[in-house]
Amino acid sequence: MKSQFEVYLRLKPSNNQSQNSMQYQLYHNKRLQVLLPRNVKLGMINNNRDNLEFNFTHVFDQKSSQDQVFSKVTVPVINSFLDGYNATIFAYGQTGSGKTYTMSGAETWQLRGVIPRTLSYIFDEIDKRTKFQYKIYISFMEIYNENAYDLLEKRHLEIPLEQWNKIALYEDDQDNIHLRDLSIHSCNNEQEGIDLLMMGNFIRQVSSTPMNQSSSRSHCIFTVTLEGCDTTTETYFVSKLHLVDLAGSERISKSQVEGNLLNEAKYINLSLTYLEQVIIALNERMKGANRQHIPYRNSLMTTLLKDSLGGNCKTVMIATISSENDNLEETFSTLRFSQRVGQLENEIRRNEKVDLEAVVKRLEQEKLVLIRELEQYQRSGTVNSNNKKPQTQQQILPQQNGMPLNKKQIQEKVELYLNEQVTQLDVQSYDDAQMCFEAMKDLYNIRMKEYVTELTFISEKLQKYDEILTRKKEQSSFLEQKENSSPENEIYKRNEFQQINSKQKPNQ
Ligand SMILES: Nc1ncnc2c1ncn2[C@@H]1O[C@H](COP(=O)(O)OP(=O)(O)OP(=O)(O)O)[C@@H](O)[C@H]1O
After folding, report:
1. What is the pLDDT of residue 65?
2. ipTM rounded to 2 decimals
3. Residue with CA nearest ligand 1 atom 27
């Protein structure tokens, strides 16, 4: 299924109400027209024009609340994630434009952002989806100076960044990316999720260099992994939701930094440039150019987000811009980038697997229950079923208000009696008794027919699944190995990785 990238724009409220504010018009909350100030010389802008226009899935103006952003952008994405589709929401924009405010939120609970709201929504939805069983796992990582680090490793609170374990990436022969040394945490409720988010943010702050305290110089990826099971079909699915807060997108010339900070800025610039290159390459390929190679491997971030940017993933971008003319150059850079992203589409599919053994087991049990019920029904004409408890102890008379009942009404009363929902049938005449017996005979025949039909259906289904299962078991080990290395199965290898991690830790 094709899934067009969705691109949202969020304008940060202006700090000052002076003439320095960016002048713009918003049409239907989808089209932003930015008026170009005459006195501002911007090399990148064609001076013949007095405005530039940009289109979005939706534009959130300066008055938009956190809740509005969450409902519009995130809710549909999480619903599809809970159905078994991979998804990524990433915030992109210059430093201070509101990426962290949008993704994580501000100090108060009311101003919480996309990530904490997502956790609440996921657990609320899980409670409602009663025919599914879900398990949720969380990991949280940071990419800083082209190295990836685990933000949920408690040891990182005690040691400086230089001594942190770097997350190792490796690709299997199917080009799937796997991660080593990234902890994955089981999460049973919203509070546990929030605690993990807070711990990660805390570790990130503690590790930060002086400049980081006011501005985040790293990319952050908060990942929710879901293992789901549709209990009615025994279909298992695994999906991933990446919530990404990218580092500020401003150019080095603007940030005017030196030394270590210049190094950081270079890495950020480089990784965002590589991100841009990936987007351009994907755009060209979409427009029919012969682009086999997409340069994902140029940076850690694009390697990690490979699936989000041209694979099996529903991808959403939130572009954040400030509303001051001072930042116009960066604002235009963000707006232009977002237009390119908005043209992309991914091919998405549900990451599902049927547990054939579980299906066969269930069908065998159903068949056994049906055979037992059928035997009992043949013997006594009634079936003991927990669902059919007597609702009332009152007598049901074949007569109502002294008037004789018709055949259908008698059948209904007899059915209640046979289902043990009433204890007696009060028969007052020979004709009534005759009609009751007739009704019993009819109902018995109908019920028998239903049983036979259902048994035949279950037996056929059982036979079919049995055949598939046998075929599957007979498949060569080569094919099984291939299946096991698919990205959907990454989570199942978690324990293996954790064992490797725990073996490595004492030596570090
Ligand atoms: N929409 C908004 N409404 C109110 N305040 C906002 C909004 N967006 C951002 N802010 C405030 O602006 C400041 C900078 O925002 P934020 O830290 O989210 O920027 P950022 O894009 O994440 O920057 P960096 O790239 O440095 O991490 C914060 O104090 C934040 O609370």
Report:
1. 96
2. 0.98
3. 216
Instruction: Give dist(CA 172, CA 180) in Å, integer.
Output: 13
Please tell me the distance between residue 94's alpha carbon and the centre of ligand 1 in angstroms: 10
Name the strand (E) or helix (H) holding 56: none
Whether 313 and 307 have beta carbons less than 8 Å apart is answered as yes
Ligand 1 contact via 13 beta carbon (within 6 Å): yes
Distance 245 CA to ligand 1 centre (A): 12
Residues ≥6 apart with Cβ < 8 Å to 27 = 33
Q: 2-354+497-507, which class in CATH?
A: alpha beta
d(CA 9, CA 338): 9
Indicate the domain borders of the chain. 2-354+497-507, 356-474
What is the biggest distance separating any 2 CA atoms in the chain, rounded to whole angstroms?
A: 106
As a whole number of Å, the end-to-end CA separation of the chain is: 45
Kindly tell me the sign of the dihedral angle through the C-alpha atoms of 389, 394, 400, 401.
negative
Task: Tell me which H or E stretch contains 169.
Answer: strand 168-171
For residue range 235-265, what is the model confidence (pLDDT) as tens digits?
888 899 999 999 886 655 554 555 565 666 6
Nearest CA to ligand 1 atom 2: 12
Residue (of 42, 45, 69, 44) closest to 56 by Cα position: 69
Structure tokens at 74: 């995130």
Cβ contacts of 48 within 8 Å, gap of 6 or more? none
When pLDDT is averaged across residues 93-118 and rounded to a whole number, the result is 94
